Amino acid sequence: MSRPANLLGEWLCAGAVALLALLLRALPFTNVFHAGQVVFAPADAMYHVRRSYYTFANWPGVLLSDPYINYPDGAPVPWSPLPDVIAGTIAAAFAGGDAGFERILAWWPAFVGALGALPIYWIARTFASRGVAVLAGGIYALLPISVAYGRVGNPDHHVSAAAVGACLLLVCAKLLVAAPTPGSGESGNAGEESPGWVSARLARLAIGLAVVRAALLLTWHGSLLYIGIAEALLLLSAALTGRREVHAVHALSSLGTLAILLPILAVLPTPLLGLYSSIALSRLHVIAVAAGGVVAFAGWWRARSVASGGDRSGPLARVAMLVGVGVVFLLAVFALPGPREGIEPALRFLTMTDAAGSSTVEQFALFPIFGRSRAAATVNSWGGFAYLIPLAPVALIVWGRRIEPALRPAVWLVAAWAGVFGILALTQLRYGNDVAAAACVGFAIGGEQLRAALARRVPQAVAVLAVAVLVFGLLRPVIVNLYFPWARRAAIALTAGPGEPGPRLNTVGWSLHRFLVAVRAVTPETSGYATPNERPEYGIVSHANLGHALQWVARRATPTDPFWEYIGPENWDRAFGLLAAPSEREAVRLSRELNARYVAVSPSPESDLLAHQLFYADGLRRGRQPALRHFRLVTEGPRGGRPIQRLYEGAGEAPKITVPYKLFEIVPGARLEIAAAAGSIVEASLGVRTPAKREFVFRTVTRADADGIARLHVPYANPSPTASGRSGSRADRYEVRTDPHWEIRVAGEPAGRIVVSEEEIVSGAVIAR
Questions:
Q1: Is the preceding omega at residue 638 within 30 degrees of 0, hence cis?
Q2: Closest CA to 207 of 267, 255, 166
Q3: pLDDT at res. 317
Q4: To pair with 423 at 20 to 30 A between CA atoms, which of 7, 293, 668, 740?
């Protein structure tokens, strides 16, 4: 077969696995495109949409500091900007408006996830047959953890990090294959040692490595882990095999990455936690790249200088020299307080000793070890392949011993990658997405070894079929319980006629989206969402899990979000202090410090005293807690919806609820002064009807003082206007309604009615009767 025809066949196979990956990631589109709206995955994905929207609206602008996070102070955005800038740029080029923007952002992760199949195919193809490469790409296409991160509607940075990380692994493997073996004469004249510098092909790989490394750094702030592993494995491979050209390419590519990175860092704001932050792109990342380049250059220089005939020292001596240079470099750097303090948060994150580690689902263990795993995490993330993760590097090592020596370093590199990230994947779910590329290659290699063993006893077709049945058997729980339901809903939606209702949707994401649409409708618009140099007029306090969702769908600022306390510990503490405030006075004080006008609540533990009283009692008297005087329900819903807590451990044990979310406004409230006999009990009550078709009576009670005056504080007006001030708009369907007057009772007997206007509520007026 001619070379062009063979290359075409390769790309057709690679394209086929990418297409399979795309189709599977597109299947849950009915969970995303529903009732004319686009429902993005809760949490991180929604902030990526918000950030991409900024570039879309202000192209080529990049949202580097955001007044809508860490409100009221704002903060620099900790995430690396590349995926959001690319997505926003594509939307700016092709979207016709906000609706088009949302459609493009919804499909973005599915296409990025599908493209991630291509480097996986070519990694396997580097040292195995086309069939093995197809199997590796096919397993990746079906692997549930990769599907989850790359599914439609989930534009999280992890899908981009996995795809670019797979490209980094591919370039490193290609480099180890392309670099000549000592004594091969491939780079010089026949029978001579290679000169230790780079050929044109290696120069292209140096450029590729520089660009991919820079792209990874600009994609994920946690890429220090990728970079550290890749740099160490390249250095170790070059030292063990004596391939000096690998050191040369490594050093050159480090210079190239720094040339790309430094100008970008120069225009970025000071990152969170300082210039050497490990939770944002910073000088610490520059140090990591420089360290790899310095050690690689030292390795190349030593190899050139040992002897005119080449480096004759043993592999252990070469490794020891590289380790020594690396240790000296890092000791010199970390002797400085900035880098030393900057790396500490990353170590706490990796060891799950930070605040996020105890409650973030992504940081739970794959198996029930250390008490940190949900029952369904193993099967839902990996299917039966979860139990084969430790075997993936073993299969690659065995394979490397059987193939030609020139290809072994590439196999060992992939095996080491699968081993290191495999250990991390067992301890934290999130790293399953990062090990997927190497693990899928290892699974495919294991499948090929099984096929070869069976083929010695049964016909070839039977052996191939057996491997295929095994793969689908390992994934059967996910296919039956997840992929088939997706496909069924997709078929119903695609075959529904005009005007016919599609499948009913009651997911966590849809419930949250509907509530946040109501929040935006009933609250006043705020400034500075997509325009620079403006700040929002107020914020909304909520649990951090709701933060990014409020910032995107409701387009409101919040002091807390899934950036966790790193984004601003002072406002973080104030917000959670408000939710757990032991008294209303303390809550109001904290709201003023946060410039917060609203509080959004969902099911909460009893320790969150204020949030618990608001959610479960609507601010009414609860136990020893009197009725709240400054908090009024503005909207709630959706009825029968599912709270975001369902995504986290223990959510199924929560009490049954009618609505998952409620929004309260913080108001001065009016003070009613009612004349009554000293010591008599005076009560004011008001009927309240919510958009979720609930009804309750807000009641406040006090005793008349010695002067014969009862002072009652009330937070609701008659009638309750649209909180957004846009009466007659779509907000009407979402707002809370009240009776036309307050009922007053003295000593249990009717004592008249009082009408309280909205102006009197917001001004804290005194109304004497």
A1: yes
A2: 255
A3: 83
A4: 293
State phi, psi for 24 to the nearest 5 degrees.
-70, -40
Beta-strand ranges (E) seen in 277-410 are: none
d(CA 399, CA 352): 35
Residue 195 gets the label, from left (phi > 0), alpha (psi -120 to 50) or beta, of alpha
CATH code of domain 667-769: 2.60.40.3390
pLDDT over 60 (residue 333):
yes
Q: Calculate ∠ Cα 77-81-83, nearest 5°.
A: 135
Q: Is 299 exposed, middle or buried (0-12, 13-18, 19+ CB in 10 A)?
A: buried
Round to whole Å and give the CA distance between 124 and 374.
33
Contact (Cβ atoms closer than 8 angstroms) between residue 454 and residue 446? no
Which residue type sits at 195? P
Tokens of 202: 């290696």
Q: Residue 760 is encoded by which pair of tokens?
A: 């009197």
**For residue 193, what pLDDT is reported?**
45
607 CB-near residues (< 8 Å, 6+ apart): 580
234/176 Cα distance (integer angstroms): 8
Nearest-CA neighbor of 663 among 514, 510, 540, 562?
540
Report pLDDT for 273.
78
* Nearest alpha-carbon partner for 337 in 273, 291, 289: 273
pLDDT at 651 over 50: no
Instruction: Give the largest CA-CA distance in the chain.
Output: 113
pLDDT digits (tens, 9 = 90+) for 523-545: 999 999 999 889 999 999 999 99
Query: For residue 43, with 0-12 CB atoms within 10 Å meaning exposed, 13-18 middle and 19 or more buried, which class applies?
Result: buried
Angle at 759 between CA 755 and CA 760, to 5 degrees: 55
Q: What is the pLDDT of residues 270-315, one digit of tens each?
A: 888 788 888 888 998 999 999 999 999 988 888 777 644 445 567 8
∠ CA 595-598-604 to the nearest 5 degrees? 115
Q: How far apart (Å, rounded) are the C-alpha atoms in residues 402 and 590? A: 67
Rg (CA), the chain: 31
Residues in the chain, overall count? 769
- Coil, helix or strand at residue 188: coil
Residue 372 has pLDDT above 70, yes or no: no
> DSSP character for 627?
P
Give the C-alpha separation, 23 to 694, whole Å: 42
What pLDDT does residue 301 have? 85
Dihedrals phi, psi of 742, to nearest 5 degrees:
-85, 135
C-alpha 53: how far from chain center = 17
pLDDT tens digits for range 688-706: 999 999 999 999 999 999 9
pLDDT of 257 reads: 97
* pLDDT score for 727: 45
Q: Which amino acid is at 251?
A: A
The tally of CA atoms less than 13 A away on the side-chain side of residue 264 is 20
User: CA–CA separation, 600 vs 543, rounded Å?
Assistant: 8
**Residue written as token pair 């000088």:** 283
CA-based torsion, 135, 141, 144, 145: positive or negative: positive
Contact 140, 16 (CB under 8 A): no
- The conformation of residue 185, written as its DSSP 8-state character, comes to -
Residue pLDDT, tens place only, 336-357: 777 777 777 766 666 655 555 5
